[in-house]
Write a structure and sequence with these properties.
The protein is built from three helices and five strands; from the N terminus they run βββααββα. By secondary structure, the chain is α+β, with helices and mostly antiparallel strands. Helix 1 crosses helix 2. The chain has one domain. Strands 1, 2, 3, 4 and 5 form a five-stranded antiparallel sheet that branches. The N and C termini lie far apart (about 75 Å).
């Protein structure tokens, strides 16, 4: 009996790797630099569903769902994420995307409050706001 094990024919062939693209360009989802944000409210009840924030220094922007608003806040996030991704694909700065979203405030079940644009020292402040209400 030989001490060598037979080669499995499946592993005898050359290997080939396929490169996978990283996907569409996206804004970063966190920053410790200053950001601006606005509130998105439910069209029917006026309850705050979440916040869209953006900061140019770290090329960051995202939707932050308000935990107290529950599943409706998470489902509303899809439209705001999609709109941010589309803005990034067109090469807009995060602040430009934010201004564009405010100019066209309608989401799926929510809408942006036009006078709610506010400054924050970083994204963590917005995350805390969304978590703590």
């Amino acid at each position: 009996m030989s001490s060598e094990r037979p080669i499995n024919p499946r592993f005898d062939d050359d290997m080939m790797f396929n490169l996978v693209s990283p996907g569409p360009p996206r804004y970063a989802t966190g920053t410790d630099k200053p950001v601006q944000y606005f509130s998105v409210v439910d069209k029917e009840t006026g309850v705050v569903l979440g916040y869209v924030w953006a900061g140019d220094e770290d090329d960051a922007a995202t939707w932050e769902p308000r935990q107290a608003a529950g599943p409706r806040a998470y489902s509303e996030g899809g439209i705001w994420h999609a709109r941010l991704e589309e803005a990034k694909e067109r090469g807009l700065l995060p602040s430009q995307a934010l201004a564009e979203l405010l100019a066209n405030p309608e989401g799926n079940k929510g809408r942006a409050l036009p006078d709610s644009l506010t400054d924050a020292p970083n994204a963590g402040v917005v995350e805390t706001l969304a978590a703590g209400e």
